[in-house]
């Protein structure tokens, strides 16, 4: 018998996944596998199909072909809320928080999202450890001094941090992040990287990211998409020197 440890089963796998819009195939036979505590980045030029792939994985668009396996179960036709209950959480390319609520209340909403209205009524006035969890996630994101501030008054960088926090509050098994550093000022990128790194110690992360230095510092594996299909896959340092990847990026405007 060999002494090599077996590869851990992937947390998420897409097998020959394809998504079509009318006559146009935006995702073409994409197979990727994400490990339970891996940060897997999907990169590629504008229009490569990255967001569509995310939408298919998280149940927002229906694939035309192929399958999706999550935590050992076939989830190909699951709706987003069902996937969320199984532990698949996602953020969007556009920041989506409640600007009129405080930072703390944004997180409280996220922490109680899995409760029914009846359960919420029953727990009114009790803290049930909620405050302790709230403190912990605020601290983890470096937002501990901002729990009482109106979320809409935060800087853009802090709002993105808050958005990531709301997606991880329920301790998902897999977190999908679509361009978490898009539009951030240079000094706001490092806190987002630090938070993703902490989160990745307890769940898998699948990340679309244009900033290649972010990819380099976080990703264990990188899949390059171009024209809806996988161009290549591997560790960042291999992918970054692949001539096809360099060619696909040259002269391509980066996403805003
Ligand atoms: P990326 O995130 O890599 O920039 P997208 O997944 O957003 O790319 O888009 C991939 C391609 O699919 C683009 O050509 C885009 O115009 C097209 N597309 C995306 N969503 C739709 C849709 N709902 N209907 C029709 N075409 C779409
Ligand atoms: Mg996109």
Provide key terms for this protein.
256 residues, alpha/beta, Rossmann fold, six-stranded mixed beta sheet, four-stranded antiparallel beta sheet, 10 helices, 34% helix, binds adenosine-5'-diphosphate, binds magnesium ion
CATH superfamily placement of the domain at 36-51 and 88-250: P-loop containing nucleotide triphosphate hydrolases
Shape: globular
Low-confidence stretches: none
Secondary-structure element sequence?
EEEHEEHEHHHHEHEHEEHH
Proportion of helical residues? 25-40%
Cofactors and ligands: adenosine-5'-diphosphate, magnesium ion
Q: Strand order within the widest sheet? A: 6-7-8-3-9-10
Biggest beta-sheet profile: 6 strands, mixed
How far the N terminus sits from the C terminus, by CA atoms, comes to 52 Å
Briefly say what this structure is.
The chain has helices at residues 50-57, 80-86, 103-111, 117-122, 130-140, 156-168, 186-199, 212-218, 236-240, 243-249; strands at 12-21, 24-34, 39-43, 65-70, 73-74, 88-90, 174-178, 204-208, 221-226, 229-234.
